Amino acid sequence: MRGREGAVALAIAALAAVLVLAAPRFYAADNLRDVFLATLPVLIVALGTTLVLLTGEIDISCGSMFAVCSVIGGVLAKATGSVALALIGACAAGAMLGALNGVLVAYAGIPSIVVTLASMVALRDGLRWATGGTWVADLPLSFQWLGLGQAAYPSAAAATTLVLVGVAAWTLGQVGTGRAVYAVGSNAAAARLAGVRVERVKGIVFALAGTLTAIAAVVNAVRFSQVPSNSGLGLEMKVVAAAVVGGVAVTGGRGTIAGAVLGVVLLGIVGPALTFLGVTAYWERALQGAIILAAVGIEAWRRRA
């Protein structure tokens, strides 16, 4: 385990120890289950965000894309009664929206922060106009918990997430395409001279990020009886923060899936931990910001050392 990953793991262990002593009710089975299920979608989106960051780009449209894919999945499930069609439709929408971002960034040469900021606003406002702010209700029972039931669903969702994490980590470490992602983020010009198709790599990464966001949207939506049209608010901050805290460089070329996973776990338990420790929830984002600032500051210090 690398230095940053080890530090994050140590921080998680320290927070867990504090909760054992100061708020043992945090470890109640129902609460752990809720925290676990709330963290899984964030983790899936963070996988895509990590890929984008590794290429030296950024995607802040994932929260709005999450909402769009959630509503599309809910509408398809309601119209067809098929969970498979809902998942396929949501993933297709996510892939297309992500690919559009990728084309504008990689081939049109527009900075990713500009493209994804525009996408974030356009998708959120477009969804608000299309739905009138109403939620998708009267979902079929087959859509709830993917038809597996509330008891069996957590295991299935965890298995799916583990597979996605494993595939992402293995691809980055063992497959040529994964190494190309690091090469593009480290030095795009040198990667191009080495024969890497930089534009294609960036386009694929953005499309994958969109697909993963759609999967996360469905994984989250099936937990509830309605699909809110305003879901995913603030998600972009959570996933970028988790990746950066886990050691993924915002300038690209450095970072691991394991680090991003640890970052998600740390930030995922901070909010509930504050509640059980009697601290107002308004401090959650402030603490997240402090963690991010510390992570970036440590990285800058290490570069100069």
Give the key terms:
305 residues, 12 helices, 74% helix, mainly alpha, ABC transporter involved in vitamin B12 uptake, BtuC
Please summarize what this structure is:
The chain has twelve helices and no strands. With 305 residues, it is mainly α. It has one domain (3-304): ABC transporter involved in vitamin B12 uptake, BtuC (Orthogonal Bundle), CATH 1.10.3470.
General description of the model:
The chain has a single domain, classed as ABC transporter involved in vitamin B12 uptake, BtuC (Orthogonal Bundle). The chain has twelve helices and no strands. Helix content is 74%, strand content 0%. By secondary structure, it is mainly α.
The CATH class name reads Mainly Alpha
What is the count of helical runs?
Answer: 12
Give the amount of beta strand, in percent.
Answer: under 5%
Strand tally? 0
Multimer state? single chain
Structural class: mainly alpha
Count of distinct structural domains = 1
Task: Summarize the amount of helix as a percent range.
Answer: over 70%
* Spans where pLDDT lies below 50 across 5 or more residues: none
User: What is the H/E order?
Assistant: HHHHHHHHHHHH
Q: Mind describing the biggest β-sheet?
A: none
Radius of gyration: 19 Å
CATH architectural group: Orthogonal Bundle
Give the overall shape, derived from the CA principal axes. Answer: globular
On the 0 to 100 scale, the average pLDDT is 90
- CATH topology grouping: ABC transporter involved in vitamin B12 uptake, BtuC
